[in-house]
Amino acid sequence: MIDFAFLIILYSKAMVKQYEWYPADNVARASRVKTQRPAKLRTGLEAGRVLILLSGRFRGKRVVFLKKLDSGLLLVTGPHKVNGVPVKRVNQVYTMTTSTTVSLAGVDVSKINDATFARASRNQGYRACSKFGSEKAANQVSAERIAIQKSVDSAIMANLKKAATKGPAAVNVASYLAARFSLTKNDKPHAMKF
């Protein structure tokens, strides 16, 4: 009579693949390194295209796309004189592309990069407390950012004025940029052309 335990051992050896070599427990494996690559530019986005911001402080505002930065973010401006949106970085996920374009002749954004938007360290610890003698400095816009805003806005505003003299269709671009985007209850966004 065959032993039942012997049959189980015989059956398990036949079903499980046996390996001649097993890795040691203490062999260090190279860690996985994930690299963040900047996003590709969405189709339809080119310099001068008017975008609608969908999120953030300026949601619903129309802005002019200037260029793609190295980080993958978009550089946009209102212009500030038209709708109050400064030169800022925006993730392209939070924008909607329109069919309207603005001429960017004379606009120089070659010196603007991600380092332009870097902030000074805000953590001052106990030194920022009024009890220790020094008050926390208020956030100030740097002179460099103000100069960039003026140069970009003046060039775009000049292009808008030139376009306004060409015909009645171009006159509305400045007022189009100033108008806030919104949808009402009866609007059908899937049927609209932006």
Description:
With 194 residues, the protein is an alpha+beta fold. The chain has a domain at 40-114 and 143-178: SH3 type barrels. The chain has helices at residues 4-15, 80-83, 143-166, 168-178; strands at residues 49-53, 62-68, 74-77, 88-90, 95-101. Strands 4-3-2-1-5 form a 5-stranded antiparallel β-sheet, with helices on one face. The termini are far apart.
If you average the pLDDT, what whole number results?
83
What global shape is seen?
elongated
Q: What strand order characterises the main sheet? A: 4-3-2-1-5
Helix content: 25-40%
Derived structural class: alpha+beta
Distance between the termini: 85 Å
- Low-pLDDT residue intervals, each spanning 5 or more residues: none
- What portion of the residues fall into strands of 2 or more residues? 5-15%
According to DSSP, the number of beta strands is: 5
Task: Give the radius of gyration.
Answer: 30 Å
The helix tally amounts to 4
CATH A-level architecture of the domain at 40-114 and 143-178: Roll
CATH class of the domain at 40-114 and 143-178: Mainly Beta
CATH topology name of the domain at 40-114 and 143-178: SH3 type barrels
Taken in chain order, the helices and strands follow as HEEEHEEHH
**Biggest β-sheet, characterized?**
5 strands, antiparallel
